[in-house]
Amino acid sequence: MKKSRTVGILGGGQLARMLCDSGKKMGYETIILDPNSDSCGRFGADEHIVAEYNDEVALKKLCKEADVITYEFENVPSEVIKFLKKNGGNVPQGEKPLYLSQHRIREKSAVNEIGVRTADFLEVKDLKTAKEAFIKIGAPCILKTCSGGYDGKGQWKIVKEDDFNNVEWKNREYILEKMIDFEIEVSCLVVRGINGDVVTFPIGENIHKNGILNKTIVPARISENIQKEIQNLSKQIVEGLDIYGPLGIEYFIKGEEVYFNEMAPRPHNSAHYTMDACNYSQFDVHLLGVLGEKLPEIKLLMPVVMLNIMGEDREKVDKILLDAETKLHIYGKTEWKQDRKMGHINYCGENVEKLIEKANSF
Ligand code: ADP
Ligand code: MG
Prior knowledge:
It contains eleven helices and 17 strands. By secondary structure, the chain is α+β, with helices and mostly antiparallel strands.
């Protein structure tokens, strides 16, 4: 029997909740720190410290009580990590994965430097620099805020110069990217444990609706060669950038070409399928990784389609008929709001096309 250990988690949303559930199963205690007293992570955690992320008293308490501290969102300010470390906190992932993933130009430049392809891009500050960049890159492009964007927010498609008039120009940094005419979007969850073990989960094919992930299909409908290539690229990224812990990486595929799009140093929505269709879930491996345990080889037990449940789906959830293939996960958020992720369903079975049909008829 291993010595029981306590994992502290910055953030208390659904990812924290599922990390806590996984910790409970494996005999670890969990403490979440989140300013919202009703955040859904509290249902899984042994303790919930309700405090702002810069609350020094709360952070010191976390350092004292947790053997290891990790995070469930990428926008943790780097000062918080510095403060934890200064006060004896063990934060094995450190600031680096946050520093890189909080800024689209930083992350794309970093992966380019280790030889990973991205869309062409340029830094842009205002309308003038945007127009210059647009001439260099060529239409069509996509303009994004460098930080703070998610679920397609803070993005504008630019086909002609006039499209820049729709942009909300605030005093901030932007990136102008060439649009990739991809056939398919995929992602790979990779974990580099503190002991140096690296494992990758199977590639998920991602379908978005209004900029929000709707479905993940596994196995992705791409050749096995490209699947292997993406797993290798993902390993190359965590090792080349010296990142520890989990990393969810999104890619575009155009013919035989693979483009890195973005990454997040936390469990990833597109890997929720691992909870029912793999021998270990992304949450299990995240915890094992930051605790410095040996990482298990990951096996896909069966094909799966993960479908996100949004706030507007409440009535459908009330009527859902569960069957042998249909696994429901509800996070326990208090308010069912439009475009809010409330849960997901993993349709597990033999035939991916049938599972897709089933998900489509939800
Ligand atoms: P977010 O942080 O909002 O997920 P992404 O960079 O992943 O931001 O962009 C959201 C979606 O927009 C992507 O999943 C993809 O469908 C589309 N997109 C983003 N960048 C590009 C690009 N360079 N070329 C083509 N499509 C893009
Ligand atoms: Mg994305």
